[in-house]
Amino acid sequence: MKTTLYLLVTLLFAGIGVSAQSTNMNEGYINFDIDVQAIDTSRNAQQSAAMMRNSSMEIFFAKDLSRVDFTLGKISQTSVRINRKTNKGVSLSNTVMGKYATTGTAEELEGEKVEVSTENIDIKPFNEYRTILGFKCQKHVMDNNGVYTTYWITKKIKIEGMGEGIVNPNLPGFPLAFTSINNGLRMHFQASNYKDIVPNKADVFSTDVPEDYILTQGN
Which residues is 69 bridged to in the sheet? Predict the structure, then answer.
């Protein structure tokens, strides 16, 4: 089962790529702050932007282990944790409706693979650079059937073992900042913290269901 938020990041990260010049990382932590703004005057867009303030995304990874946490403003908190060694995963969702958990295999929790295609996709690099968390990043703009996404890409990071759900070789590196516009909302992801080690791995990557969560049946 793929959660709505996991799908959101799959779509936004569909431009993530790798290159031979990248530095392989098999353990680490990256935090993204998410700024959401309404770009039209519709009431729905304004209300959605207000509800999604103070959003964030955290990525934890180690050998055969991954975890992606989403805080979507006042709407929800979701944590997707996968252990490929044991072939187990859990998705924990905390919303106003309650706390719910879904378990499954690693493949089920990773969700559908992103189709790798260059059809109708145009990627343009710019001679513009920015340093983010000590990494030199170059500006790229991807046009995917008229949907434009701006990425600030570093070739110094290649995350191993995060699954094909958020890996796509269309861009030559890892985005530490990117902006997407959809449904009247502008969403800007900005990396704000980076570590090359994950302490307390047993707790961080645990696929056990906490006692205060209700276990539901996945797809």
Answer: 58, 79
The widest CA-to-CA distance across the chain, in whole angstroms, is 52
The residues pairing with 185 across neighbouring beta strands, listed in sequence order, are: 38, 182
Instruction: Let me know: does 190 contact 130? Beta carbons within 8 Å.
Output: no
Provide the whole-model pTM: 0.79
Query: Scanning the structure block, which residue is given the tokens 């995350």?
Result: 159
CA dihedral 30, 180, 5, 172 (to 10 degrees): -50
Phi, psi dihedral angles at 209 (to 5 degrees) = -90, 120
**Nearest by Cα to 31 from 152, 106, 132:** 132
93-101 contacts, C-beta under 8 A, 24 or more apart: 93/3, 98/214, 99/210, 99/212, 99/213, 99/214, 100/213, 100/214, 100/215, 100/216, 101/209, 101/210, 101/213, 101/214, 101/215, 101/216
- CA 57, 16, 177, 27 torsion: positive or negative? positive
Task: Give the tokens for residue 203.
Answer: 């707790």
137 exposure class (CB count in 10 Å sphere: 0-12, 13-18, 19+): buried
Q: Please state, in angstroms and as integers, the Cα–Cα distance from residue 19 to each residue in 48, 94, 129, 180, following that order.
A: 37, 37, 18, 23
Q: Which residues pair with 130 in a beta bridge?
A: 137
pLDDT digits (tens, 9 = 90+) for 115-128: 445 567 788 999 99
Give the pair of three-digit tokens for residue 35.
Answer: 């700024």
* pLDDT for the residue 162: 54
